[in-house]
Amino acid sequence: MKPAIQDLIQKYLQGKATAEEKALVDAYYRSFAKEQPYTPYLTPQSKELLEEKIYAGILQNIEADPVPETKPNFKFITNPRAFYFSVAASFVGILLAFSYYFFIPQDQVVLTTALGQVATFTLPDNSKVTLNGNSELRYTPWSAHQTREVTLRGEAYFSVQHTKNHQKFLVHLPGKMQIEVLGTEFNVTGRPNNTRVVLNSGKVRLRLSNTQKNTPKEVEMEPGDMVELEPKSAKVAKIKVNPEKYSSWSSSMLVLDKTTLRELVSTLENTYGLQVTVPDTSLLRHTFSGKVPKQDAQILLLGLSKAFNLQITKKENQIIIQKH
Fold first, then answer.
1. pLDDT for 10
2. Is the pTM of this model over 0.70?
3. Which among 110, 232, 252, 241 is positioned nearest to 176, based on CA atoms?
């Protein structure tokens, strides 16, 4: 049985690891350095935080239990902080490899986007999925006779290929709903405070979970339909909308069609990771129509400010929106 990775790190820091244990640590580090597919599921912020925690732990251990002086077989690094960061980076790799080995199915594919990033991916059946910022899609590659299944956290636009054998395509929003399609285009949002599906073309069936007793468990959708699940009450609302409004984020322009400031605040917080304050809460009910560029948060904020005469103040990650 392999020793726990935490014990290996502790023994390594104290200079008590055996030659076999050192070889195991080296093997973990080499596997991490090869950029295996288990790394994309962590956001850059998570990696940075993990590295900082490990760095702090290394400093604490070195100060508490000095490693006996030995003759080095490597070049001396004059900057001790640089050395500690290099060791920390190694242990980040070890922990990632360890967590991947024990907790992530080795054949599972994880696709992610950073805050404000939009990226398009091709799935095994040549279907396309475009992920909005701060989103994640997981799936296990399927065969021609298996149901195509993916799990989404965040927001995505799907263009699903129809197969000759009418192979089902399922999108799971854990704890909320399951979307079943054959071949169609639709936008899905599955965030903590916002769950909705907007159908551009084709036909889909939603299977809902955790809804109220008088709410249907299945909902059929046609092009132009939007189904929204209220986060607190679990009520389901189905209305007709302009689908372009809800999928325009996948292009360079954001289409606003009687979009409330409350909706825009949600986009800024969920997609770009900003913390938004609107001192005059009545402003949240104001609606806006038009098109604004959205290449990044700064351009989007400038576009909103100019187009709708808003005073937007930005300090680092904090945003304040007021009337001019």
1. 60
2. no
3. 232
